[in-house]
């Protein structure tokens, strides 16, 4: 179904407001930013802002949702790969941490101002990442790359550790504090379960 001109204009307005809000949240914090300041930065009236977003909380949740949609698209494109499962898993980890690095500003706001992650999403980033990871681990077992193991438990551990690291490193000013994490997760949590050539 084709988007109408009015719907397209509304979406463009929403994105302008979200971009303005994110810039202000990063510069002066979520709690230190008013809807009036967001309206001024986006060059809209406050009334128009409230027509698009009923509250600042709603606006922030839309920012979070926008990031989730982007990550979902990344995961869906990576699942279709013909590579070996463990190569897909490493690529997925690298993609996820690259994504987190790119979204470090909004993660920093969530962590420092204790805003949390979106609760009302159809599927949270954590659930999506865990399900994708479990699927790839199951494929690795079928392909003979991993010994049989509890993939639900292992995927939960991987995602839990990754999420905690993302939150902890969000405020880090290093160029890329996440760069080494995918290989470390593989070394600590995946490679010990790999089937070696001498194994039957």
Task: Give me the secondary-structure topology.
Elements: H1 5-28, H2 35-42, H3 46-52, H4 56-79, H5 85-102, H6 104-112, H7 125-142, H8 151-169, H9 181-190
Helix pairs in contact: 1-2, 2-3, 4-5, 4-7, 5-7, 5-9, 7-8
Characterization of the model:
- The chain is mainly alpha-helical.
- It folds into 2 domains: 1-54, Arc Repressor Mutant, subunit A (Orthogonal Bundle); 65-193, Tetracycline Repressor, domain 2.
- The chain contains 9 helices and no strands.
- Helix 5 runs antiparallel to helix 9.
- The mean pLDDT is 85.
What is Rg? 20 Å
Largest pleated sheet? none
Our measurement of the CA-to-CA distance between the termini, rounded to an integer number of angstroms, reads 54 Å
- The appropriate CATH architecture of the largest domain is Orthogonal Bundle
Shape: elongated
CATH class placement of the largest domain: Mainly Alpha
Number of strands: 0
Return residue spans where pLDDT drops below 50 for at least 5 consecutive residues. Answer: none
Give me a quick take on this structure:
The chain has 200 residues and is an all-alpha fold. It has helices at 5-28, 35-42, 46-52, 56-79, 85-102, 104-112, 125-142, 151-169, 181-190. The protein is built from nine helices and no strands.
Key words describing this protein structure:
elongated, mainly alpha, 68% helix, 2 domains, 0% strand, Arc Repressor Mutant, subunit A, 200 residues, single chain
